[in-house]
Amino acid sequence: MTVATRPRATLRFAEKRELILDGAARLFNRRGIKAGTLSEVAAGVGLATNSLTYYYRKKEDLVGACLVRSIEALNQLIADAAEAPDAGGRVERFVHGFIARLQAIDEQRAPELILFGDMRALPQPQAAPVFAAYEAMFRALRGLLLDPAVPAPRGSAARRALNARTHLLLAQVQWTRAWLGRYEPADYPRAAARLCDILLHGLAAPGQAWDAAAGQVPALDEGAEGSPGGAGGEGEAGALREAYLRTATRLVNDHGVGGASVERIAAELALTKGSFYHHHDTKHALIDDCFERSLGLIRGVQRAALDGGGNGWQQLLAATAPLLRLHDPADAAVARGPLLRLSAWTELPDELRWPRRGAMNRLVERYAAMVADGVADGSLRRVDPVIAGHALSGLLNALAEVQHWVAPGPGPAPAPLASIFARPLLCGGLAAGA
């Protein structure tokens, strides 16, 4: 190869690599990083599999490259947002920048970015640099919420609350990918503005008390609508089924549907694969049951909140706070959890995927109706009820990873998870530490 031809060859290599990363991100977003294969990526970009391995020798190398590229894209948005003079302005610029990037993707002006949902399924050695980059990005995003004039929090309680707000912000912008498709891409900026209004100012109208309302939230009721307490069966068989559901849910939350193998689920419970297949025909049938269990819990808490009366704010809090108890290690209700990561619906086979998506949409619509009622009675701010419903479902989806960022530290009993993770969304203060 002559010196004159090297730049052209290098450009062709870079263009093909970008095409591969775009195709791989789309495939892994649809199938999960465990289920997607190199041969599928190759076929999607018009290459033979052995040609693709010239660029990325292993699938794990390709997944790692996709994740690093998404992290770098977020770093660029964070750096741009950091130029705003205050925390509220930085949050607003970051949200608008992220949604502008999604608009460019949907208008085919920018390549796809891989989701982070099952990032923990990436094995070593590829995982180490990816997680280092992700944690550095998280710290940079956390810096957007800090006031330069105020010393950074050093105590474990203050740092835990700051991490909770940072995780909430990142989770909400990532979750927009689940609902922005209902809008025309040209309308994405308006949707971004309405989401920013909720993130910065909350849902509760002035004068609505968090503590007084939080004291009225109902306990999780075994007999509530859709509760798995009555659906799991009785005795040892029912207890074993519940154990399978909780274990599979936890593994899907961390490793995706593809990473929650039958062998792994059985091993976590010290049982055999034969025992698994005695209770479930297929792994996907178990995951579908995990969805029904989680959706049933959400459904039951929503129903109890509506039946409990009160104004819209009180009902909304009662339909949200009990669900956070399922992920709060300081709460006895954690034994009933966790909730399944809602975004895992994309990894189900088609015959299961769309019914679950429909069920999720109905629960979002119930949240939206509750918000509309609260706006009407004056207990909630005048916000977009539909986007508020999606933000609430995004809050629940984010619970799948919350333990990685807001684990209690040493010292006094930590604040309830609801107060540091849900309150900034419900009452405002994400950018002010309220």
Can you walk through the features of this model?
The protein is mainly α. Helix content is 62%, strand content 0%. Mean pLDDT is 87; it is low at 219-232.
Q: Would you tell me which CATH topology of the largest domain applies? A: Tetracycline Repressor, domain 2
Q: How much helix, percentage-wise, in residues?
A: 55-70%
For the record, the CATH architecture of the largest domain stands as Orthogonal Bundle
Into which percentage range does the β-strand content fall? under 5%
Number of helices: 18
CATH class of the largest domain: Mainly Alpha
H/E element string?
A: HHHHHHHHHHHHHHHHHH
Number of strands: 0
How many distinct domains?
2
The CATH superfamily title of the largest domain: Tetracycline Repressor, domain 2
Oligomer: single chain
Unreliable stretches covering 5 or more consecutive residues? 219-232
Using only CA atoms, what is the Rg?
22 Å
Main beta-sheet annotation: none
Q: What number is the mean pLDDT?
A: 87
| Gap from first CA to last CA | 62 Å
Structural class: mainly alpha
* Overall form: globular
Secondary structure layout plus pairing:
Elements: H1 6-31, H2 38-44, H3 49-52, H4 59-81, H5 87-106, H6 127-144, H7 156-179, H8 188-201, H9 210-214, H10 235-259, H11 262-268, H12 273-279, H13 283-307, H14 312-318, H15 321-325, H16 350-377, H17 385-398, H18 417-427
Helix pairs in contact: 1-2, 1-4, 4-5, 4-6, 5-7, 5-8, 7-17, 7-18, 8-18, 10-11, 10-13, 13-14, 13-16, 14-16, 16-17
